[in-house]
Amino acid sequence: MEKRLNKIILLIGRRGCGKTTFCKELIKKSPLKTVVLDTFDHPDYRHLPLVRIDAIHRWKAGHCRVISGEPVENLQKLFNNVHNAMIVAEDSRRYIEPTVQKAIRQGIVEHRNRNIDLIFMFHSLKDVPPYICSMHNDVVLFKTNENVDIRQDKWSNWDTLAAAHKRIMGNPSAWYNETINLQ
3-state SS of the chain: helix, strand, coil percent to 5? Predict the structure, then answer.
């Protein structure tokens, strides 16, 4: 039996760089049930069945999305009611504050106990709160609109990220990305 790692994966890149397409492939390949916290009815997730957040505890298998309600409350309800699954937090900067709200911090800390993989999507390295920078396992880095010559000390692996960013920005493909693993 394969050991579950219960990873926290960050997908980071500007709009239109392929984060959602990459995420859709992860979902498609995953043996886990997956719920997408879709904050704005993203067209790329409309093929997934909608599950009301108050019914999420009855969801047993497959992939689905949640779009109604307040995103922080929805994420907290997902953390409290979902087990043995992957949770995708689409466009996380819309609702995760720089100090990371207590309910989200608690869910991140307890994700291993619930056997949950977490995917957070951000548009830039600077958008990721320091707490999440300290908790992630992998970064899938796409093209971003930032200057990596300005050091961001919240990242313990900044030099690795900056070097990867320069390679990514130098690649002619608009969708090129690299995975930076911390383990």
Answer: 35, 20, 45
